[in-house]
Each structure stands twice: as C-alpha cells, then as structure tokens.
Amino acid sequence: MRFMQRERATLNELLPGLDAELSAMPLGDLECARGPGLKLFKDARGPALLVPVEHSGLGADAVSAVRVQRAIASRSPSLAIATTMHHFSIASLVDVSANAQGLEWMLLQAIAEGSLLVASGFAEGRTGQAILSPTMRAKVRGGKVVINGSKKPCSLAHSMDLLTASVALPTDEGERMAVALVGKDSPGLQVRPFWNNAVLAGAESDEVVLTDVEVPMDLVVRTEITPDQQLDELQTAGFVWFELLMSACYIGVASALVERVLLAGKVNASLRAGVFTDIEAAMRGVEGVARAISQERAGQDALVDALVCRYHAQDTIGLVVRQCVEALGGMAYISSNDVTYLAAASTALAFHPPSRGRMAEPLCGYIAGGPLSIV
C-alpha cells in the first residue's frame, strides 16, 4: 500500500530495521511502561538522527525528521513522543554548536557515538505558567552551577542519559534563563513516579528531581530572554523544531487509524478517501515548514507557520480520528484495545505547549505587526 510509503522508506533508510522491529510487536507491549521501544530506538542509532554527519551523526534534515517521527508514531505513539523531546534538545544543541566555540560539538559527538538519550527539562506541563519560565533555580558556587527543582512530567525519565534543564541563573543584570546539561548519574538527581495514565505510559513521563546538583560552568548555555518573554534566536529555532516534530507524531498516531480504515474494504470509499486526504493535507503543511527551515535559519515567521500547522493538525486529527473509529465499527472497538488506545493517544497534542488559548493574544499581536511572545 502506498499510504505512508514515503515516511517508512525514510525511516528504513536512516534507522534500518527499526520499523520492522516495531511492526512485529503488539501495540500494547510497545506502549506499556518501561516497554522495549526505547532500547530498539537506541540500538538503531536513533539518538544520532539530528546530529550532523561531521559529528558522527546521521545528519537528517527537518523534512526527514518529521517523516521519521510520523512513521514511528504509527507503530508506537509513546516512542515517537518521547524521542521528540530528545530531538528537540539535539536540534537546540546543534544550533548552539554552530555559533559557539565551547564543548557543544564534543557533546554532540558523544551523543551520536554512544547513542545517548537526552531528556528535556523545560516548563511543559505547568498549568498557567509561561513555558519560558525556568523550571529550576540555580546559584553559582565554587565555579559551578548548583541546581534545585523538579520537572514533571519529564519524558525519558528512566532511559535518559542526559537532561537539559532550564534554570534561572543569577547575573549582574538580574536573573536570566540558562540551559544546563545534567548527567543522569549526577549526585542529587532522582526519578519519582508521576504518570498515572496507561495512555502514553511508554514515554516514561515521570518526575525528575534535582537537589543541589552541581554542573560545570562549561555545560551551562546562557540565553537572552527579555522580561516580556520574547524569544531569542536559539529558542525560536527550538520551538519550531518542537512544534513540527510533535505535530508529525500525532499525525502519525491518527495515521495508524487511517491505515486500518484504508485496509478495511467494507468502509465506504468516500470516507476512506476523505480521511486520507485530510491527514495527508495536515502532514504536507508540516513538511512545508520543515522544508523551509532546512533551507534557511528558522525565525519568528517560521515559528508562526509551525504553530498554524500544529493547531490545524489538532483540529484535523480530531475529525479524522472520530470518523475512523466510527467507520471501523463496534467489533474493532470491542475485539481489541488498539482502536481505543490510538483514539485516546491522538488527543494529547492539545496538551503540549504553547496552548492555543494562551497563544491567541500573542498571535494577534504578531499579525498586527509586533514581535511574537510565547506564554
């Protein structure tokens, strides 16, 4: 079948064997807590996907990356969503490495060669809090940065090798946001249970707690956030990657249901064609923005484009999933948890930042000619 042929061909080219491994396993096994997906991803060199070739990585561009994430999500939603947090961190490190003279390139090479997973400790999941607000507090002591705080939920909490933590770092000009790179075995780092839902349990989204964790100063990247939460170039690029990759993941989850409908000959051809064209249109929008940032540096225009695609994808996914569940019928619903699970998992795109409601005023301000802020 031609549906998702392009995405799965890209996955097979970059991470040979992973799609076959995932497709051979029951969905329930892949989606359970501490399931096999993340090990398979590491064994396939998945953590090196966005690391440049010159640093021993696979050097995938944005178009290839969103195709890979859609393909993985159609097999295992948890795996795709968890690894998006890794790719988001790597994309930011790549951007820093291209404009810095520090140790970033060495870290990228270590991640690629060791197939290391990087968790993201940014302010996702705190209702009512601006997502650029640091999740943790920091102070400088003895030439090191000492961090206290927690991140919950934090995907890859158990399988991570490194954590990128957003911290409030005191400076002569007042507190500024910085990103610290923390090793999983750092004294004072703990993982506590947090995720109580069976849906997306395989993403390992538990709580990571840091208590007086010391980080060398050369593993702390300072950013230039203004008090009104306007974005600097690094954060803008990071958010573009996050929105595109996460949108592709949930399009992939919905695609798993679309695929079942397309294979079910009993379903009306008009409905089959309808869900196919709707989900493909959503993916083509994501690919269009991905192609643009592969050709030039991501700026605020690209971030607005990515947000437009993401919010449109939310609406499209909701419509397509409802149609697929109804078309597949009661027996598919009764005989297996898969349809129920995929339908439930597909709704979670709305929970990732920035929410549509909180971004309404900033988007209107941007359309009127002002700078974009993230709240």
UniProtKB/TrEMBL annotation:
Q: Which InterPro entries match?
A: Acyl-CoA_Oxase/DH_mid-dom, Acyl-CoA_Oxase/DH_mid-dom_sf, AcylCo_DH-like_C, AcylCoA_DH/ox_N_sf, AcylCoA_DH/oxidase_NM_dom_sf
Q: Which Pfam families match?
A: Acyl-CoA_dh_M (PF02770)
Q: Which UniProt keywords apply?
A: FAD, Flavoprotein, Oxidoreductase
Q: Does the keyword Manganese apply?
A: no
Q: Which Gene3D superfamilies match?
A: Acyl-CoA dehydrogenase/oxidase, N-terminal domain, Butyryl-CoA Dehydrogenase, subunit A, domain 2, Butyryl-CoA Dehydrogenase, subunit A, domain 3
Task: Specify whether Oxidoreductase is a keyword of the entry.
Answer: yes
User: Domain named Acyl-CoA oxidase/dehydrogenase middle: which ranges?
Assistant: 121-213
Q: Look up the domain of life of the source.
A: Bacteria
Known PANTHER family for this protein?
ACYL-COA DEHYDROGENASE, ACYL-COA DEHYDROGENASE FADE28
| Name of the protein this chain belongs to | Acyl-CoA dehydrogenase family protein
State the organism named in the record.
Pseudonocardia aurantiaca
